[in-house]
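Notebook, bench 3.
Goal today: get a predicted structure for Response regulator from Motilimonas cestriensis so we can plan the truncation constructs. The sequence was checked against the plasmid map this morning, with no discrepancies at the termini. Length recorded as 122 residues. Pasting the sequence as submitted so the record is complete.
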Amino acid sequence: MAKTILVVDDSASIRQVVGIALKGAGYDVIQACDGKDALGKMSGQKINLIISDVNMPNMDGISFLKEVKQHPKYKFTPVIMLTTEAGQGKMAEGRAAGAKAWVVKPFQPPQMLDAVAKLVLP
């Protein structure tokens, strides 16, 4: 059975690029445009990994990550932050909130798929 990955980014083109790369690697993909949208789509089904942007309207990636970690069903779901933020402060904030990896845009799909393969839950 394919593993499900939730992609959260306010950029439709980024969601599309990430979605195509993941589907090409055999994953099922759920897309959300911000943290609030993503939380609404996390309706109890198994999500093996989350890829989230940091800077988004309505609910940013760090706030979204903190919410996810409060949810008993998704507490251990690994999260990769995919963002233009390369500053140590933001990275530390992301790690403190529970991010497992930090991929800086622009990214190479193979680099992202490598991180996904290492972190995705069985």
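Residues 4-119 form a domain with the Rossmann fold fold (CATH 3.40.50.2300). The chain is about 40% helix and 20% strand.
Flagging this for group meeting.
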